[in-house]
Design a protein that fits this description.
Layout (H helix, E strand, L loop, with lengths): L13 E3 L5 E4 L20 E6 L12 E6 L10 E2 L17 E2 L5 E3 L15 E8 L4 E10 L7 E5 L3 E8 L2 E5 L2 E5 L3 E5 L5 E4 L5 E8 L23 E4 L11 E7 L2 E7 L6 E6 L4 E4 L20 E6 L6 E8 L2 E3 L16 E8 L15 E4 L9 H8 L6 E3 L4 E7 L4 E3 H6 L7 H5 L17
Parallel strand pairs: 10-18
Antiparallel strand pairs: 1-17, 2-20, 3-4, 4-20, 5-19, 6-29, 7-26, 8-9, 8-29, 9-16, 11-14, 11-16, 12-13, 12-15, 14-21, 17-21, 18-19, 22-23, 23-28, 24-27, 25-26, 25-28
Amino acid sequence: MPSSKFAHSEKYRYLNGFSSYHESEAIEGTLPIGMNSPQKHPYGLYTEKLSGTAFTAPRTENLQTWVYRIIPSCSHGNFEPRESSTYNTNPENKPYEKIHHIPNQLRWDPFDLDETVDWVHSLHLVAGAGDPTMKNGLGMYIYAAGKDMGEHEAFYSADGDFLIVPQHGVLDIRTELGRILVRPKEICVIPRGFKYRVTLPEGPVRGYILELYQGQFKLPELGPIGSNGLANARDFQVPVADFDEDTDSEWHILSKFAGHLFQAKQTHTPFDVVGWHGLYYPYKYDLGRFNVIGSTSYDHPDPSIFTVLTAQSDHAGTAIADFVIFPPRWLVAENTFRPPWYHRNTMSEFMGLIDGQYDAKTGGGFQPAGASLHNVMSAHGPDAGAYEKASNADLKPVKEGEGSMAFMFESCLMVGVTEWGLKTCKKVQAEYNAESWQPLKPHFKRPTPKVAS
């Protein structure tokens, strides 16, 4: 299937292409020709540059976008701390937000919907590593909201890029560069610094977020696969310019800065960009368009073949963050145990389930809107029921995961679990290990000794 079937119809237009140089103007003639910063813009707009990387980053890594707006972003009051004693999404060791580094396999029941909060206040850090102030590491979140953000509110994270994975409900996201509609089985990336407002056209929402503190998400190299496959660049969608002319209303700009919440007031909308061009922008992707690669002979390949996006460390092939999915796919391998093998991994693996059932966890404990964490070198693999089923299955071609979509946030870092994730949410399954792997039985049989003739 080349795309997902969505219950909520698309209502916006997009540009297509990952890491492409895009340009968009809501009024023809907004973008200067042959230059970026004219002395006087023909429509009286201000020129502003949004830099996702250092000016001197190599050309292949450089991410900059020029915007042409009615009032510059710097025109606001001072940022003041907001809810400083309760709002903390920083993976650090503080009295009110302890981080627990533990080797146990963890699994969570489905996280609750919360109809009392908006997008900003629905963010709960479950696990993370590193420090956004040093631009290293990542955070793994659950969001669950039931209210639109305020009519004159906008939010941005100075800490990192948000990779948003909806599980329930629809997100209507207005960004500075345009509008994006995001539904379950789509993902959306909002890079560091972009202001946006989230409304909920179908009511309560729930899902997962990976916040990347260092680097940016890229498409993985394809190596011997060739030039096509996995997530194809043409299937990523970028918003088109869309603006309001509002210079009279009081707006509240909310900033997540070093994990804490700040607020500034201004008398103009942040959504006043009439045109833009560049390489730094929000985007979305339909997971149904992922071109699955797999074995057509024997053995189960490494799960890296399911990587949608990656953010590499300074060591080639080792990711600060990979976003991996397990979509519907044909299994045809001969004489092969088809689910993932048992393994201990130098990478940490945080898994979630958008819909359906994951083939390596058939015992019923891994449910949509739930999650699991297998930290560095914590052994894991199929549960006992999945092992017995797969070991005795008729190895005919079979379509696996029809109607299902599981995903993984994978990282080379040792991930710590927050107090909220381990205790406050009250979703950790205490018997995860006991139910999944302790029932495994020995099947070892010694060879029959040969009788001397």
